[in-house]
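Recap slide: M67 family peptidase, sequence and predicted structure.
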Amino acid sequence: MPLIILKQDLEIIKKHIAEIFPYEACGALLGIIDGNDKKITKVFPANNKYRKIAWDAFEIEPKDMLEIDKLSRKNNIEVLGFYHSHPNHPAIPSNTDINASWPYYSYMIVSVKGNNLEDIADIKNYLMPDKINKPLSEEIIIAE
Ligand SMILES: [Zn+2]
């Protein structure tokens, strides 16, 4: 199921990730399932509970999860996935990512090398159907 995201929403994610570098940034992807598409209509840059220089530890702070929950109810949308960054590491799921994953969600991983938008090195999106098989790549379509 391709993930469709507006260019402006992807910009919000890129800015958040570049700003937080060298720390790992994370956030939620909200929207609707429309036929065979996951349409992202709102991105929520969150605070990482693990505020340290780590490329493979992220967890959205509980108060942000509450906000995300409220936002989805108010707008009649749902959490379709999460994004997080891999500072100075490739956009490939770590073992920690796989172990912390849920089958339903899309996981967007952004590789970043510095504090500028040009330092965004790679953006990939995965489904992690279980903890035994390899994550599956899921297409990202950027809409204007
Ligand atoms: Zn990761």
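The chain has one domain: 3-143.
The chain has a mean pLDDT of 93.
(End of recap.)
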